[in-house]
């Protein structure tokens, strides 16, 4: 009997909700718009943070040794050669190799110029090399050999093929391979790989040349000891995830990006709350007579509350689904038309958006519940 009663109340609540299609559409629109804005802002931020660590993710080193002043992979500070030798001598280190990370100006065959990110891999091991789509990795040792990454910025180099030639600082460069990487860069410039010695030969250098020292520990338990020993040298050792987190924190708290996204997310929440709250309250006011009639024929206050909670939850979850679908669809369309578009929907973004929607539901429901519980059947019938 209780199951039948609950089913009947739920069905009645549903019919009351969708009976006025205009009001129901307005409720859905408010929630959908709020979810869309919240999720879009957080997805853009997540995409920027992911791409800001593209070098760390693509290279895949377990431990990175760097100058303590480094805040992001792009903000590298060259280290003297003795650092690499000292790190290699630390107990627990299987091997340690240098990585060059810099930028060069590429002169294309049509005479135009294009900035490019250049990564110089250790000559002996090529640790951190990308996966090749065309060509052989051994060809990187050929005279003037470079590997180009085929990503969203690939066409800025005029879609080079194997054998394509261009100049870097008046030095001849030849494409010997085309590769793919996990994450594209953030700043919209193409990426080239070559050997460490060729990179420091082609590009202007300061006194020191090694941007990072990439370390492979013998076991995960050796990481703590390696970090302590590197700290004694006056430098910083971070695991891959720690370097990614360090980069994210810098963008969140030391640039205007994090605060701008936070403000836009809060504004989106307030917009959704105001639209849905006002519309839901109007819906309750217009249905006071029906709720009063139900109370007059014996409906308990808890049953009326359950009906209101069902209506608000159903509307919120429906709007949440529509908002997520609209956001993901727009992001997919944007990436199709704009390959450089940096936005990614993450599980954490979906979770935060859902929590915000549930808060909107709770506040809207509270407003409706208070109004319904104060209603007296006598007043309804007297009017």
Structure description:
It is elongated, with a radius of gyration of 30 Å. With 383 residues, the protein is an alpha+beta fold. Helices cover 54% and strands 17% of the residues. A six-stranded mixed β-barrel has the order 2-3-8-5-7-6. It contains twelve helices and ten strands.
Oligomer: single chain
Number of helices: 12
Largest sheet: 6 strands, mixed, barrel
SSE string, helices as H and strands as E: HHHEHEEEEEEEHEHEHHHHHH
What is the terminal-to-terminal distance? 34 Å
Provide the helix percentage: 40-55%
Say how many strands there are: 10
List low-confidence stretches. 1-6
Biggest sheet, spatial arrangement of strands: 2-3-8-5-7-6
**Beta fraction of the residues?**
15-25%
Q: What characteristics describe this protein?
A:
alpha+beta; six-stranded mixed beta barrel; 54% helix; disordered N terminus
Quick structural summary:
The chain has 383 residues and is of the alpha+beta class.
What layout of secondary structure does this protein have?
Blueprint: H1 2-19, H2 21-52, H3 54-59, E1 63-66, H4 81-88, E2 93-107, E3 113-121, E4 131-135, E5 145-149, E6 165-168, E7 171-180, E8 191-195, H5 196-202, E9 212-217, H6 223-232, E10 236-239, H7 240-253, H8 256-286, H9 288-296, H10 301-337, H11 347-373, H12 377-382
Parallel strand pairs: 3-8, 5-7
Antiparallel strand pairs: 1-9, 1-10, 2-3, 2-6, 2-9, 4-7, 5-8, 6-7
């Amino acid at each position: 009997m209780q199951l039948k009663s609950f089913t009947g109340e739920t069905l009645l609540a549903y019919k009351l909700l969708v009976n006025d299609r205009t009001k129901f559409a307005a409720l859905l629109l408010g929630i959908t718009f709020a979810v869309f804005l919240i999720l879009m802002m957080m997805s853009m931020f997540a995409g920027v943070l992911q791409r800001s660590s593209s070098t760390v993710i693509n290279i895949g080193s377990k431990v990175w040794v760097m100058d303590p002043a480094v805040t992001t992979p792009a903000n590298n500070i060259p280290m003297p050669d003795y650092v690499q030798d000292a790190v290699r001598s630390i107990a627990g280190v299987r091997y340690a190799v240098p990585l060059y990370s810099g930028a060069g100006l590429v002169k294309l065959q049509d005479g135009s110029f294009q900035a490019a990110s250049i990564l110089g891999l250790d000559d002996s091991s090529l640790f951190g090399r990308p996966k090749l789509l065309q060509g052989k990795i051994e060809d990187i040792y050929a005279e003037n050999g470079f590997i180009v990454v085929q990503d969203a910025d690939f066409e800025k180099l005029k879609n080079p093929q194997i054998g394509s030639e261009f100049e870097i600082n008046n030095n001849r460069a030849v494409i010997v391979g085309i590769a793919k990487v996990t994450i594209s860069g953030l700043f919209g410039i193409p990426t080239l790989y070559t050997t460490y010695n060729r990179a420091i030969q082609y590009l202007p250098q300061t006194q020191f040349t090694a941007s990072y020292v990439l370390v492979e520990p013998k076991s995960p338990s050796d990481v703590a000891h390696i970090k302590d020993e590197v700290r004694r040298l006056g430098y910083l050792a971070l695991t891959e995830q720690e370097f990614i987190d360090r980069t994210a924190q810098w963008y969140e708290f030391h640039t205007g990006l994090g605060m701008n996204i936070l403000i836009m997310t809060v504004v989106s929440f307030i917009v959704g709350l105001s639209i849905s709250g006002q519309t839901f309250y109007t819906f309750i006011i217009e249905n006071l007579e029906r709720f009063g009639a139900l109370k007059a024929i014996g409906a308990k206050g808890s049953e009326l509350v359950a009906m209101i909670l069902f209506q608000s939850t159903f509307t919120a979850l429906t709007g949440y689904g529509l908002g997520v679908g609209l956001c993901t669809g727009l992001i997919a369309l944007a990436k199709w038309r704009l390959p450089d578009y940096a936005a990614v929907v993450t599980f954490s973004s979906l979770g935060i958006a859902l929590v915000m929607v549930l808060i909107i539901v709770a506040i809207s429901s509270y407003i409706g519940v208070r109004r319904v519980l104060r209603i007296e059947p006598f007043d309804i019938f007297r009017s």
